[in-house]
Amino acid sequence: MELNFPTAEELTAALQAGEVTSVELTDEAIDRIERDDKAINAICVPDFDRARAAARDADQARARGEDRPLLGVPVTVKECYDIAGLPTTWGMPAYRDHLPAEDAVQVARLRAAGAVVLGKTNVPLGLQDLQSFNELYGTTNNPWDHERTAGGSSGGSAAALAAGFGALSIGTDLAGSLRTPAHFCGVYAHKPTVGLAATRGMVPPDAPAWPIELDLAVAGPMARTARDLSLLLDVMAGPDPLTYGLAYDVALPPARHQRLEDFRVLVLDEHPFLPTGSAVRAGVNRVADALADGGARVERHSPLLPDLAEAATLYTLLLFSGSVARFPVEEYEQLRIQAAGLSADDQSLDAARLRGMVFSHRDWLEVNNRRELHRHGWRRFFAEFDAVVCPITPTPAFPHDHDPDLLQRRIDIDGAEYPFFEQLVWAGLATMPGLPATAVPTGRSAEGLPVGVQLIGPMFEDRTPLRLAELLEQRIGGFQAPR
Hints:
Layout: H1 8-17, H2 22-40, E1 43-46, H3 48-63, E2 74-78, H4 105-112, E3 116-121, E4 133-134, E5 138-139, E6 141-142, E7 145-149, H5 155-163, E8 168-173, H6 179-185, E9 188-191, E10 218-223, H7 226-236, E11 264-267, H8 278-293, E12 297-299, H9 308-320, H10 329-340, H11 349-357, H12 361-381, E13 387-390, E14 410-413, E15 416-419, H13 425-431, E16 437-444, E17 450-456, H14 463-476
Helix pairs in contact: 2-3, 5-6, 7-14, 9-11, 9-12, 9-13, 10-11
């Protein structure tokens, strides 16, 4: 039995049948990391001694008759999550010695489910890039092409999965940080409905680990199959036990349908702010064809769809509204002067970024009200449709670009250059209203790079896009190991 690329579901079955032990799985994963990760650099903080001890404990627990959801399964964790005794830095050198005393709530849930934590995966500086590199831990390379990025900010987790370093990983998503790395590395990820999975302990190292409800950011699962995503989401879902968890339990509704022919899906491959590259458009069309061939109702247009341009603008305003909270007063005042000089007719995303940076509370409340109108629009939309299929970014993984001025970076879409940040518009489509979105692989580009799409579903109906992902996996295939 090859011990690194089977699914978590298969590994659990093998463990239950006594075909393999957790110690064997863990040793095999560690051996693979030590052999292959020098070229990829996905695991930035190994925790192998404690992993081996946890594996021994898991085997002993199983021998006593225990059976937990992830008992004995090796996993990894994004660096931004607190793990007691390991550094949490978010890639910032000033915090290289920051050692949290407690596990993040999601790490605690992994351990309670019996998972064996191999270590932490790499991130960009401050989690603020679509790539994963920083001065402390270096650059994570895409397992398919080491000259290209694995994505960010959960790039280390996606690369680890693609390389066979553990069966599951947990990441976060504010600007596609789960979905983009999954798309770039050919694996699966799920951005849950906002608020579904507690985030305490997923916090910058200079901030206290309080049970704060985040506005846009979520914690979510990553895996090599859609069924494994559901398995891990069941472990992660639920409010913080220090707040809403005192009163509420999670009871997600079942998927709307079990058969592909019962799904009603809107397919999108065009955005008003930038084009979709040919490789990604082909991936979207592969999914659309598979849906239609399977009997699903597939539409390309609907008057019920909320306005994509306004959605991108609202997302940009909200995303950047908190980005300058700790700027020196002098720098903030310069931004205010620049924003005041914008023409009222300037509705570009560059203008939205600048306006968002200097929002007043009154401004934020107005934009939040417009967001609620979009949420209401999505509720009407999902009365007629079950999911949206659309890009995650307009291109497959791009070559490493470490220009520190992100505003000067450009993304190449079929030979034409566009502002780097504008590729976030597709990620923001689900993030702004807080909808669940599942990233699924669709095959490879002409260059041999993975291509993924996202399946956006109704709020708190996370099982619907996850089930659709399973059905698509059966028709078009799923994860393939890098060659």
